Structure formats: structure tokens, C-alpha cells
Amino acid sequence: SNAVKFTPEGGKIRLRARVLPDGEIEISVTDTGIGIARADLETVMAPFGQVENILTRKFDGTGLGLPLTRSLVELQGGELRLQSKQGMGTKVTIKLPPANPSPEQ
Known about the structure:
Elements: H1 2-6, E1 13-19, E2 25-31, H2 41-45, H3 65-75, E3 79-85, E4 89-96
């Protein structure tokens, strides 16, 4: 929901999902939203981490979305990568390992 929340009207959001040649699953969300300054990337990945404080905040949220997503992805043996430029937008990429077929398959 961050892409929707932080992309102004008229901006673009792109969702892409694909299976890589090695069987990994890659999901990415790219937006043309407000972006995140390089110095703040670690902050937004920490639980309850938000760039703005309670007095200057323009957007609602708990600061748990990205950290929770990263934890769930890592529990599955995957990784979450966050790339962003302030004023240009953000790209979040999730890579998950190939699914192991069950013994019945």
C-alpha cells in the first residue's frame, strides 16, 4: 500500500512478477512517488521507523509494513531489496527461492 499512499495523483505504479531462469520468483513494485532519501533507507526498514515525526507527518501509518514484509520474505528464504531516490520514486523487489515440490508431486 506504500506505493499507493506515497504516489501523487497522476503518478505511476508498476507491479511485475516473474519466474527467473533458476526458478526464483521475483516480485517488484515500482512507483513515481515521493521517494526516500538515501540516508533514510535504513530508518524505514526498522520497525516503527518513519521519516517524518508525529508533528510533521503528512501520511498515516505505523512504520511496520516494510519491516514486516522483509521478515516474512526472509522466513521463506528470500530477500527484499529497497531502492529509492527522493523526489523520483521507489522500487521494492522481493526474491523468493524456487518452490520445493511436495513428495506427492
